[in-house]
Design goal:
D-Amino Acid Oxidase, Chain A, domain 2, binds adenosine-5-diphosphoribose, about 400 residues, binds P-hydroxybenzoic acid
């Protein structure tokens, strides 16, 4: 088999890239290790920046998103027992975010992919990338017991943090920057009405919590927990009780509880790979970087990476210019580092770091008091939360 761009991974990065290239008439094949159902079974964040909804509009996969997605013009920060609203719209000249689950966005992209008629191979085992330092890269994989070869012009590594593409880049050419946080997020999904119509980010003496949602009838909540905790040890009742203790009295009173549909613990990590290009192989999305979920930047960064990559590839095919390809890594990384900084900082002021001593809590408190009482401070949070524009000039 031969194609122009071989895309490894059918998460949001791979599917959106496939759609952007398809719209430009560039042939591409997606190879995914798992089944489609498995990919849709992963519960991830659900806050879309406007650049991401614009991209979904651009590829025409936007009908359900605009019908079911919830536009949020602000969110609350709760600390010292008091809630403070960050007025995203007022502070950013009218920008907002959209609450629409990554699962739903992925489902919409999968359906559009099926309709596009381009090839997607699910359950592609032992995917290996070859010769990406030459003009004729290849990808091999196994399917139904047979080995296949996919010849291509370019390889797009959209295969997530544990993928094969980054792992295949020469060690001497790669630098990795990493911070692992000393706690995780225990998440619970339930068919209960959200406690508040907007999100609440909570800093409490018992640890961070987040009240999020998927719809008017489905909620997503998180608790900061020690990395040593096991999800099996957290009953639904224990989760709800702990969440209530971290909320303000009004929210605690209003909280509607119910059986969990899903419960899991995710570690928190900041991670960036440099560069994101190795000859004719590119990394995009979680394959190249991870942010801690505070601020929900992961999916949005993945979307902007593949927008930059599709622009670069379209420029190559339409104008025979390599300028876009040559600039891909630097361009992406400038935006990535800004989102990494925001996610790291937001994580740092909202979580408990008991091992760093009591001074940290005092400093966090002072920083939050300062921010919330300064319009400049609030604007800094708001402008990062709604996301930087694609061409932010960085
Ligand atoms: N061969 C083929 N496919 C692979 C391989 C492999 N060796 N390794 C991983 N994959 C697939 C995974 O099964 C997964 O479906 O690549 C896909 C990567 O998808 P994601 O992990 O969702 O990464 P990405 O598409 O970049 O999306 C980033 O996901 O983790 C969140 O916060 C993150 O929201 C962000 C988004
Ligand atoms: C979520 O809804 O899962 C979510 C929302 C906001 C975040 C992280 C996760 O910052």
């Amino acid at each position: 088999m031969r194609t122009q761009v071989a895309i490894i991974g059918a998460g949001p990065s791979g599917l959106l890239l496939g759609q952007l290239l398809h719209k430009a008439g560039i042939d591409n094949v997606i190879l995914e290790r798992q089944t489609g159902d498995y990919v849709l079974g992963r519960i991830r964040a659900g806050v879309l920046e406007q650049v991401t909804t614009d991209l979904m509009d651009e590829v025409g996969v936007n009908e359900r998103m605009h019908k079911e997605g919830l536009v949020h013009g602000g969110f609350d920060m709760l600390f010292n027992g008091q809630r403070h609203r960050i007025d995203l719209q007022g502070l950013t000249g009218g920008k907002s975010v959209m609450v629409y689950g990554q699962t739903e966005l992925t489902r919409d992209l999968m359906e559009a992919r099926a309709k596009s008629g381009r090839t997607t191979v699910y359950e592609a085992a032992n995917v290996q990338v070859h010769d990406f330092d030459t003009q004729r890269p290849r990808v091999t994989y196994e399917k139904d017991g047979q080995t296949h070869t996919l010849e291509c012009d370019f390889i797009a590594g959209c295969d997530g943090f544990h993928g094969v593409c980054r792992a295949s880049a020469p060690r001497s050419a790669i630098r990795e920057f990493e911070k692992v946080y000393p706690f995780g997020w225990l998440g619970l999904l339930s068919d209960t009405p959200p406690v508040h119509h907007e999100l609440i980010y909570v800093r409490s003496e018992r640890g961070f919590a987040l009240c999020s949602q998927r719809s008017h009838t489905r909620s997503r909540y998180y608790l900061q927990v020690p990395l040593t905790d096991k999800v099996e040890a957290w009953s639904d009742d224990a989760f709800w009780n702990e969440l209530r203790l971290r909320l303000d009295p009004e929210a605690a009173e209003k909280l509607v509880t119910g059986p969990s549909l899903e419960k899991s613990i995710a570690p928190l990590r900041s991670f960036v790979t440099e560069p994101l290009r190795f000859g004719r192989m590119f990394l995009a999305g979680d394959a190249g970087h991870i942010v801690p979920p505070t601020g929900a930047k992961g999916l949005n960064l993945a979307a902007t990476d593949v927008k930059y990559l599709s622009n670069a590839l379209i420029e190559y095919y339409q104008e025979r210019s390599e300028a876009g390809i040559d600039g891909y890594s630097e361009r992406c990384l400038a935006r990535i580092w800004r989102a990494e900084r925001f996610s790291w900082w937001f994580t740092g002021i909202m979580h408990n770091f008991p091992e760093d001593g009591p001074i940290v809590a005092k400093l966090q408190q002072a920083e939050l008091d300062y921010l919330i009482n300064s319009e400049a401070g609030q604007r800094t949070i708001a402008e990062n939360y709604v996301g930087l524009p694609l061409d932010f000039g960085g």
